[in-house]
Amino acid sequence: MSDISRVLCAIELTEPSRRALDCALWWARRHGADVSVLHVHRLAVTTPDTGSLHGDASAGAPAEAQGTLDPDERGARQLEVERFVEQARTDGVQIEVLLDEDASVADAIVARADALAADLVVVGAGADPSSEHPMLGHTTAALLRAAPCSVLVVPAPAADVANPCVSGLHQVMCAVSLAEQSDQVLEYAAGLATESTAHLAVVHVVELVSEVAALAYDFDEHREVRVQPACEELVALVARVIGHENPVEEIVAHGTACDEILKLAAEESTDLIVVGHGSGRRARGVGRPTGQAIAREARCPVLFVYPIGFDASRPFADSHGYRDVSRPA
User: Fold this and answer.
1) For the segment 117-159, what is each residue's pLDDT rounded down to a tens digit?
2) How far, in Å, CA of 280 to CA of 267, rounded?
3) d(C-alpha 8, C-alpha 21), whole Å
């Protein structure tokens, strides 16, 4: 598994951010990493044609920013962020507190991750009703499309769900597409499971469009033609990356990707879902990225692994995303 020396945790001054901060600190302790805690004061921008205010910059929007903090306000906000961080259990971790101002919170996080050469960005799932992904949040969705490193998305606290990054990892699920980056994603997940002596389940999803299949040929035959090769590929992937000695649960399923992965995660009482970084981006011809759909509804953190050699500017074809899945009969 890749070494982690710098964790960047982006926070708002809210209770959900405390959960994200706890996860960032836990991750840092596990890897002996330093933590940078970033709070971004969002600037409003005005459009010259209408003069209207927008809370976040968007593509093509002119950038006349308003609401910059004056020195006194900046000092007060910096102190507020530092006090927020001090309330967390920060023992044994080297922490710096950063305050940035930007019209786009996601852009500010990406810029800091670049400048710090961060290995992992930790962020809350957010909840923005105006977002394209209302349960994920506009900032987190944008971050997943542009982040230069792995991203851990932490859901809001739930009364009946403990924070696994405090209580420890016992069940890790790695969802793989069997595409070119799957080896590195699985290697990362296996390393985490080994460190935590956690159970590892490796899931692959197969798209079976019943309406199309029924018109073409027998659906059961179609399923066998698609599922059996996927099973063989998954077994080969696990053997290649992990070997035969370590116990791993292998699952090949068919149905709807997001629904089935979430269902499997619930059945397994999963503490962490690991997916490829590319699954957080919008694939060509795909209505919404599977990784984002998982992250917005998961009850546990979702880790988007940024593989070595990954080209963030290259659009992902459908074969790089997750195929629709459900557990075979």
Assistant:
1) 999 999 998 754 444 444 467 888 889 889 999 999 998 776 5
2) 23
3) 10
What are the pLDDT digits (tens) for 255-310? 778 888 999 999 989 999 999 876 544 433 333 468 888 988 898 999 999 876 54
Exposed, middle or buried, 67 (CB in 10 Å: 0-12/13-18/19+)?
middle
> What's the start-to-end Cα distance of the chain, in Å?
34
Whether the CA torsion 215, 216, 220, 226 is positive or negative: it is negative
Task: At 237, list the tokens.
Answer: 């992937």
Q: Average pLDDT of 97-116?
A: 95
Q: How many CB atoms lie within 10 A of CB 319?
A: 11
CA 249 remoteness from chain centre: 22
Crossing angle for the helix pair 290-297 and 257-267, to the nearest 10 degrees: 40
Strands, E assignment, 162-255: 171-176, 199-206, 249-254
Q: Which domains does the chain have, with CATH numbers?
A: 1-165 (3.40.50.620), 169-329 (3.40.50.620)
Q: Which of 310, 294, 304 is nearest to 205 (CA)?
A: 294
Give Cα separations from 309 to 1, 115, 134, 182, 306 (angstroms).
15, 19, 32, 13, 9
Taking alpha carbons only, the member of 200, 317, 223 closest to residue 270 is 200
The predicted model scores a pTM of 0.82
Cα–Cα distance, 241 to 249 (Å, whole number): 14
